[in-house]
Amino acid sequence: MRIQRFEEIKAWQEGRELVKIVYQIIRRNDELNRDLRFKSQLTSSSISIMSNIAEGFSRNSNKEFIRFLFISKGSLAELQSLLYVALDQKYITNEEFNDIFEKTEITAKLISKFITYLRSYIQ
């Protein structure tokens, strides 16, 4: 089955869920909401995950798509790092951290598998 739209990509769907979770956390935490720079960094990195998947898909080249998938993975790693800051600053609980981090790991694996799949078509 050929993917017709970026919305069909499982990694993009998982990235979208991550964005929802990040915004839910921000809305629930007044202290985090006042930490404007951190809040901006958190939202930017999460949005970048799904956005780079969509942008790469639109390039109509597997090589370009792979490049954007790697950028997406970089944003995902940035989000993971920021989650540690959120935990250390007590913006999120250990349970929230574990739940979100597990979701980031699932998303990272999906992106990696997609990269492997696309590479098989350019070699």
Features:
single chain; about 120 residues; mainly alpha; 5 helices; about 0% strand; elongated
What can you tell me about this protein's structure?
- The structure is a single chain.
- The chain is mainly alpha-helical and 123 residues long.
- Helices cover 81% and strands 0% of the residues.
- It contains five helices and no strands.
- Helix 1 packs antiparallel against helix 3.
- The chain is elongated, with a radius of gyration of 15 Å.
- The model has no long low-confidence stretch (mean pLDDT 96).
What percentage of residues falls in helices of 4 or more residues?
A: over 70%
Q: Give unreliable regions as ranges.
A: none
Total strands: the figure is 0
Structural class: mainly alpha
Largest sheet: none
Radius of gyration: 15 Å
Q: Termini, distance in Å?
A: 21 Å
What is the molecular shape? elongated
Mean pLDDT: 96
Strand content: under 5%
Please count the helical segments: 5
| Helix/strand order, N-terminal first | HHHHH
